[in-house]
Each structure stands twice: as C-alpha cells, then as structure tokens.
Amino acid sequence: MAFSTREQLANIPVVASESARLAQTFRSWPPSHWSRPAYCPGWAAADAVAHLALGGDFYAQTITAGRSGEPKLPWGASNPAEFREARQAASKKLMDGGPAALIEGFEQGATKLQTVLESLQEADLAKVAQHPRGLIPLGLWVGMRLTELSAHDWDIRQPHETPAHLAPTALPALLSVLPEMQMQFVAQRVIEGMDGVYVLRAGDTAWGLTVRGKTVTYQAAPPMSCDASLSTDAESMILLSLGRADPAAKLQSRALTITGNTDKGQQLCATLFRAF
Hints:
The chain is α+β, with helices and mostly antiparallel strands. The chain folds into two domains: 5-169, Four Helix Bundle (Hemerythrin (Met), subunit A); 177-272, Nonspecific Lipid-transfer Protein, Chain A (2-Layer Sandwich). The chain contains ten helices and seven strands. The chain has a five-stranded mixed β-sheet, covered by helices on one side. Strands 1-2 form a two-stranded antiparallel sheet. The radius of gyration is 19 Å and the shape is globular.
C-alpha cells in the first residue's frame, strides 16, 4: 500500500495521466454537457470542473508552503472560513467565464500542481501541509488529488451512465491509497465501543485496521484473527469509502459481506461508509 514513500511517489505519474485524460474529456464536451446535473447535490458538471481546477492551484500552493516548513492555507486565507470564501469567489469567476475558462483553469491548475509534485523528494513526504481539516503529511496529498480527480469524474458521469464506473486507468492506484484514507476517516469519526481488529477485503487485496479508543492503526497484512471482516470488490470498496455507494444496498445484494461479529461490522460500515 502507498504508506511507503516509494509508492506515494509512484502515484504522481498517475495524477498526470488522469489530469490529461480529464482535460481531453472536457474539451470534447458539447455545450449542453456543462449544465448537466452531477451526482453532488446542487452541482452541475461545470461546478465539478471548477472545483477540480481550483483544487490544482490549492494543492500546489499548500504543498509548496508545507515543503518550505511554513504550512498555511492558500489564497491568503487564515482560517477555514476564509478559505471557503476565497474558493467560492474564485469558482464563481471561473464559471462566469464559461467552458473555455473552466478548461483553461483546470489545465493550468493541473500543470502547476504536477510541477510541484514532480519536484518532491522522499525526504519531503513526511513534512506537513495545511488543509482545512488540519495538518496532513505531504505524501498523502498525492493520493488525495488522485481521489479528488477520480471521484469528481465519477460524479459528473454517474447520473448519465448505467452503471457509472470509476476510470479503470486510476483504479489500481486508488486502491493503493485507500487504506490511508480509511484510517483518516475512522480516526475522525470513531465512537465509543468500536475497539477491535477489523479486516477489509477489496477483491484480492486485504488489510487490517485496529481501533483502540481514538487511535487507529493499519496492518498491511490482514490479521489472522479479527473481530469483523468486510468484503467486497475493489471498485465498491472505493465508492463506499467515498460515500458514493449505499452500504445497506450492497449488504442486501450480498455485494458487501460481513463475517465475524456482525454488530461490530455494521458499526464499522456506519462509521466508514457515509456520505460527505
């Protein structure tokens, strides 16, 4: 899994290829596509592209500041509220410019970020950058950007494809960063009574998470003994973790199964697989 610096750096070219693929897709859209509803409530495709465009600039500025040893939010923001206000204003400006401005903004943000990512060295990855949620190690931002690109690509297509799938070109890399993301989510959401050892299986890949109070630890090799195990295919595990799939429906269809302590498994589902 991408807890290793080598695998974190190996995902940087995947960010580049997915950015290029999406830019080509956006350029191919007819005018009507930009106003089509996206999966996210209240969003059209144009909103999702604006979000991705500003994400490139946000990540580039934030990673650069963190690498220098002075982590801070971008655009002169001093707190999360100011950050959201600045991002909203910049998003409106991009969208007011229409499809050409959105495509240009996305490509410029992607290029700026890729230059920063490709300059990273292994020694940089333990440094921290400022996110509205708090300080996050630089190495994790690579997977975060890849997840953002893939999730919003799916969001744009989901209402119009039956079924919509994650881009196969990104799926292996997404699976490699998934345990990091799950560990962060569980640590942020953990509630009393969740102590235990859990195994998560995504197709042929499996790993463990151990919860002790507010501390969540990761085991690259799934423990031989656990309190509960959740099993599904790789794409479903990613979509569930991103709040893009319904765990109750997956359980009912047997696409997602729980073995071991069912109550603990259900509690992990409720904690990990929730909409944002």
